[in-house]
Design a protein that fits this description.
It is a single chain. The longest helix has 50 residues. The chain is 88% helix and 0% strand. It has one domain. It has 126 residues and is mainly alpha-helical. The relative contact order is 0.15. The protein is built from 4 helices and no strands.
Length: 126
């Protein structure tokens, strides 16, 4: 019985770690995508204000501006995906604390190790 409970705790630790890893990945990708979309939008906005009044090229700058604005809006709407990942991670973390309070130290240690590993990978050390 003890081994079964321990096995279930370790399976749940794996679920929490995977949910956190997914949340961090989606968060990173969202930030990158948003930053790029925002920069593209600002550039298109500047170009439209500088060159949009010319008859020969104005419509192309308007189209580029509308496309960039649409891309920025689409990026913002994908934020709900990030929020879903965050909620799922918090839910699993909370459920783990309720089901396996005696293994919280193990979970926290695993989360610290995961954080260290991610930071090393981000810096290119690993």
């Amino acid at each position: 019985m003890v081994q079964e409970k321990q096995m279930l705790a370790f399976i749940d630790i794996g679920k929490v770690l995977e949910a956190r890893s997914s949340k961090l990945f989606v968060s990173k990708k969202f930030k990158e995508t948003f930053k790029n979309a925002e920069a593209e939008y600002e550039e298109a906005k500047k170009d439209l204000s500088r060159f949009g009044m010319f008859e020969d090229c104005g419509p192309s700058y308007e189209a580029r501006y509308e496309e960039a604005r649409g891309r920025l809006d689409a990026t913002m709407s994908s934020r709900s995906l990030l929020i879903s990942f965050e909620k799922y991670y918090k839910k699993l973390n909370h459920e783990f604390a309720e089901k396996h309070p005696e293994y919280l130290d193990v979970l926290n240690k695993c989360l610290e190790e995961q954080t260290d590993k991610i930071q090393k990978e981000y810096r290119g050390v690993a």
